[in-house]
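Complex 240.
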Amino acid sequence: MENWAGHVSRRLKEADSTNKQARLWAREGAPHGAIVIAGRQTAGRGRLGRAWASEGGMGLWLSIIIRPQVPIASYPLLSFAMALAAADACAALSGGEIYIKWPNDLLLCGRKIVGILAEMEGTAAIVGVGVNLRQQAEDFPPELRETAGSLRMLTGRDVPPDALERALLDGLERRVDAWDFMDEYRARCSTVGAQVRVIEQETTWDGLATGVDADGVLLVRDDAGTVRRVLAGDVSIRKV
Ligand code: BTN
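Predicted structure with biotin bound:
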């Protein structure tokens, strides 16, 4: 099938959350590859229950509905395909060197420029991506000013959202069709090989990230030499 990603779209001036709107549409039978894009989000959602700042004209806020031809247990891998697609698109259009931080944050100059939130709605997957395009530090909420960035702030380039959208969807489509992207992900993920701090709900511990398994689980060797499996839904990771 060709060019399924984005062949149908709902383009909204404003949405509470494009992920939420995509879930509702998926429930009503939205086709494989349908996208929801909003100029601004009033209740943008991030991973681990966090909010995602999404002011008007500042970024690309998009969610795609995917009905993959793979078992449901493999759906979480879609967020890794999106990370690769977004990294390529951002690098190509901004000229910046983009790093993928496990599981699917994209960093530029050590600042987060892209976040990805994958969810399920029945048998559909909803993959939301937020790309910070135009913010300056003061445009972010105070608690994010040291850690968040945008392509313009960090590369000086004004990346057109429609070109970024097309590049990103093409890269996603290619990877989802081939369904063979985890080696590419491992090679591109800057967390692999790094000393990390794993912040779980109750505890925090340090170790060496040694790899990512076929399910996208991060493998971290702790100080006692035990390789522990770290699941994306539960933790945040810092390099130490
Ligand atoms: C993260 O916490 O890193 C994930 C952020 C995901 C943000 C995007 S913006 C488009 C889509 N709609 C949402 O409400 N969230 C995602």
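The mean pLDDT is 95.
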